[in-house]
Structures are given as C-alpha cells and as structure tokens.
Write a structure and sequence with these properties.
Elements lengths: L2 E2 L9 E2 L1 H28 L1 H9 L8 E3 L5 H17 L1 H12 L10 H34 L8 E3 H18 L2 H10 L5 H6 L1 H15 L4 H35 L1
Helix pairs in contact: 1-3, 1-4, 2-3, 3-6, 4-5, 5-6, 5-10, 7-10, 9-10
C-alpha cells in the first residue's frame, strides 16, 4: 500500500504503509500531549468551570450537594479531563488535517486552516446553544417533575456530568456542516444525495434530538430546529465543496 504526497512539482514522494502508520502514531501522540497539557490547566480552572455549570440551577427549586467524601475532588478531575479534551479540539482538527494534507493537491491545502477554525467555531456555537437554551429548558422541566413534599437534593456529580455531557454532545452535533465538507471532498457524499435523503435525515434528527434532550416536546423542538438548519447548511457546504473540487480538477 502506497501513500502518495501530491504537490505542485513534478516529483512526488511515496510513503509506505509503515511510514504512514508512523506518521499517524506521531499525530496521535501530539493530540495526547495536548489533552494532557490542557487537562492540567483545566484542573486549575475546575472551580471556575464548575461554577459555570451550576449557574443555570441557581433560580430553580433544587439543592446541589456533595454525597461522597471524595466526590468533589473526583468531580474536579473529571472536569479537568473533559476540559482537556474540549480545549484540544483545535489541535485535533489541525493534526487530522496535517495527516491527510500530503495526499491533497497543492490547491486543496488552503482549506486546512479554515477547517480547524470551522471545527472550533461550530463547537462553540453548539456549546453556547446548549448552555443558554437547552440546559435551562431541561433543568426546568426535570426539576418541575416531582411531588411537592419531596425535597429535590441533587448530587453535584450527577448534576455537573449531566450538564457537561449535554453541552459537549450538542457541540459535537454542531459539527454537521464540517463533516459534510470533509465527506464531500472525499467523494463519499454529494449535495444531491443529501437533498434526496432529507426524509431519512429528518427521522435521524428527531431521534438524536430525543436522545440528547429530556423527554418533553419543548426541549425536543428546541433541539430539532437548529439541527434542521444545520442539515440545510450542510447541503450548501457540500455544494460549495463539490464546486471547489471540480475547479481544482479542471486546473490540474
């Protein structure tokens, strides 16, 4: 198996299968180092992050408490690791692009930095949407379900993980346009395929919205609307990626 590095010159170098794996290994090591560094930084910021996670619950009829002696310390470690992964997303995007870039034509390599920026921006948009819209709706609904005489004492571990997972999950789902661009560039999908598959996509969107939100129609609708918009945006992005690929092939 050969891996060809494409460039604007007449000569091209070929990487063997083992060389290809070696490069992948070093890319993964760099990603791991990034996660470790940001995890250490995240531990020092864990109090600040935890306060942000608790903020949406302050106006609700609920008490957040620590149920285990080591619970708060373990939660800080978990928050630090989650922060390390999240903060490493730009590094992850860059390393993945750098890994596939040698196999691209010279004129195709300019979209690499934009890919890294897009991954970061769409994740932040998804995280903000979850924090400002989904989390308040979800907490209000879930805390509102219950018996008046029953106190609503919530473990801080369960609460923080619930909110963090909802935020990170929504941020990852917002990568839909970026994934559409990459898959179109790889020739795996086309705008026509996405348009013809909208019925199946809508069903999947409903399933995803129901899976990551509480079981109430309002939260599900609040999640479905941006997902439908993202799918339409993915079609536009796919059309742009296909058009740019055709222009690149025509000039080669």
């Amino acid at each position: 198996m050969k891996y060809i590095r494409k460039d604007s010159s007449e000569d091209s170098t070929e990487m063997g299968f083992l060389d290809h794996l070696e490069e992948l290994r070093w890319r993964l090591i760099k990603i791991l180092i990034s996660v470790v560094i940001f995890t250490v930084a995240g531990f020092f910021l864990s109090d600040f992050i935890l306060n942000l996670l608790i903020e949406p619950s302050k106006n609700l009829d609920m008490n957040i408490q620590v149920l285990k002696v080591q619970g708060l310390l373990m939660l800080k470690f978990w928050i630090a690791f989650a922060a390390g992964v999240v903060f490493s997303i730009p590094i992850l995007g860059y390393q993945l692009w750098a890994f596939v870039a040698p196999g691209l034509y010279q004129k195709e390599k300019h979209w690499g930095p934009w890919l890294v920026v897009s991954i970061t921006v769409f994740f932040l948009l998804g995280a903000l949407f979850a924090y400002l819209v989904l989390v308040p709706f979800a907490l209000k609904f879930l805390i509102g379900v219950g018996v008046p005489d029953v106190q609503k004492n919530i473990s801080i571990e369960f609460y923080a993980k619930f909110v963090a997972q909802l935020i990170v999950g929504t941020g990852l789902i917002f990568q839909m346009p970026v994934v559409s661009y990459i898959l179109t560039k790889m020739g795996l999908i086309t705008p026509r395929f996405l348009r013809r598959s909208w019925r199946y996509a809508f069903m999947i969107i409903l399933i995803v919205a129901a899976a990551i939100t509480p079981p109430d129609p309002f939260s599900m609708i609040m999640m479905t609307i941006p997902l439908v918009f993202l799918y339409e945006l993915s079609i536009v992005v796919s059309r742009f990626a296909l058009r740019s690929s055709k222009k690149t092939e025509a000039t080669e």
